[in-house]
Design brief:
The protein has helices spanning 5-14, 26-34; strands at residues 18-19, 40-41, 45-51, 59-68, 76-89. By secondary structure, the protein is an alpha+beta fold. A hairpin with a 7-residue loop joins β4 and β5 (76-89).
Length: 93
């Protein structure tokens, strides 16, 4: 799921992570591997958000798609998408 700037802001207010800026050179490589998404880095690794089945675009679940290979968090390895317990509310207040 590709998020607009407001949705990124809402996501980061509910999920402790860093968004990878759209103009970062790695985004095109990530899109080739994982599709067109907004990408987030956290302590688990690389994440995307996907709409929850019953909400349309009102809420989204954080999905971990790559994990850190070491404690220094210097490299990632792709993995099977793993849903996390984090669900983000994207609805405007």
């Amino acid at each position: 799921m590709k998020l607009n700037s407001r949705q990124v802001e809402r996501t980061l207010s509910q999920f402790e992570a860093r968004a990878i800026p759209e103009d970062h050179p790695v985004v095109s490589q990530l899109a080739d591997l994982f599709g067109d998404h907004t990408f987030f880095l956290d302590v688990r690794g690389l994440n995307i958000v996907e709409p929850t089945d019953d909400s349309g675009a009102e809420s989204a679940q954080v999905i971990n798609i790559a994990r850190w290979t070491d404690a220094n968090r210097t490299s990632l390895i792709p993995q099977e998408p793993e849903p996390t317990a984090v669900v983000i509310s994207l609805a405007l207040d």
